[in-house]
Design brief:
With about 280 residues, the protein is mainly alpha-helical. Helices cover about 40% and strands about 0% of the residues. A two-stranded antiparallel ribbon has the order 1-2. The chain binds heme C (2 copies).
Length: about 280
């Protein structure tokens, strides 16, 4: 197997950004004539169905890959305390994830739930813009094995596959009427308290936000789609709003929008309009 340098080097920001668009774009496109209600990322629809079996052997192989490619940041025992952790973000969030805590930001499951295997695989593949390189150069089989290894660090993953949230409706054309409706939703739900009136991440609460580990965590500047961690396709923004980003300060709005999901699609159009 290649050593980890092959995965790490040559991953330019542009490449990472390019990757962001790939896996979820497929879902966005397929959404055009989607049924009224469809799973966000069902296992069957996933492009990642070809995968090795999950057993003691593949977990052990995943550990060997992890030890080479991930410990530098995530630490020998997965606690997010590798030697690079403090250099990455000395005084602010995010530190590399602590996999023994079972808290995951990038999910297609409800807030408080564990992620689906696909979510973890997806994060490893695309990385986190600005914070973690993508490992698309690593064979998919190895990315699955590392996924299994990460799961083995938190016992509750043994409880079986968590369910994906359902997507109600789908992207709607970003007309002025829709953007205006989205603006009203943004105002009503006080997104501006954190993200600011113009979405620049400078709301009145912004300076006081902390992540679960006590590090200051600034809200995203929503006017910069290219630095979205959780993807910037319509479906990704829907997922961020409905599922929230656990462990941080971005709440889940699934309960608030139950029955009025169309408003989320208007909100998506408003957010998208901020970067134009
Ligand atoms: C350069 C440092 C660095 C390396 C190398 C790195 N990561 Fe990360 N990783 C991070 C940081 C920082 C975060 C937190 C990002 C955030 O919270 O916004 C993170 C987050 C993650 C997440 C997101 C979990 C969630 O909350 O949804 C996963 C999964 C992950 N890393 C897996 C891996 C794996 C597997 C490897 C090795 C193949 C790896 N990382 C290598 C820095 C790194
Ligand atoms: C209590 C503060 C707070 C409120 C209220 C809030 N957010 Fe956030 N939001 C955050 C923080 C902090 C992040 C970044 C989280 C991280 O990096 O872990 C974030 C991230 C996001 C993201 C993900 C961007 C990415 O990087 O992928 C979107 C989209 C978003 N917020 C939209 C909204 C919308 C829409 C509302 C209102 C319905 C809202 N937020 C309300 C704090 C907040």
């Amino acid at each position: 197997m290649n050593n980890n340098r092959n995965f790490m080097c040559g991953v330019s920001a542009a490449m990472v950004l390019a990757l962001v668009a790939v896996p979820f774009a497929a879902f966005g496109a397929a959404d055009d004539n989607a049924k009224a209600k469809s799973p966000l990322m069902s296992i069957k629809a996933s492009p990642y169905t070809e995968r090795p079996v999950e057993n003691a052997e593949s977990v052990a192989q995943g550990k060997a890959i992890y030890d080479k490619a991930c410990t530098y940041c995530h630490g020998l025992e997965g606690k997010g305390d590798g030697p690079a952790a403090v250099y990455l973000s000395r005084d602010t969030a995010p530190r590399p994830r602590d996999f023994t805590a079972g808290i995951y930001k990038f999910r297609s499951t409800l807030s408080g739930e564990l992620p689906m295997d696909e979510d973890i695989f997806h994060t490893i593949t695309k990385g986190v813009v600005g914070y973690m390189p993508g490992f698309v150069g690593m064979p998919a089989e190895d990315r699955w094995k590392v996924t299994y290894y990460l799961k083995s660090m938190y016992a509750e993953f043994k409880g079986g596959m968590p369910e994906s949230i359902t997507v109600v409706g789908g992207p709607i054309p970003g007309t002025a009427v829709s953007v205006n409706k989205g603006y009203k939703v943004y105002t009503k739900f006080k997104c501006w308290e954190c993200h600011g009136g113009g979405g620049q991440g400078n709301g009145s609460k912004a300076a006081d936000l902390k992540d679960d580990w006590g590090f200051p965590l600034p809200p995203r500047d929503l006017t910069r789609l290219n630095i979205y961690k959780n993807g910037s396709a319509d479906i990704d923004i829907y997922r961020s709003i409905m599922a929230g980003l656990d462990g941080g300060a971005m709440p889940s709005y699934a309960d608030f929008f139950a029955g009025e999901e169309e408003n989320v699609w208007h909100l998506v159009n408003y957010i998208r309009s901020l970067s134009q």
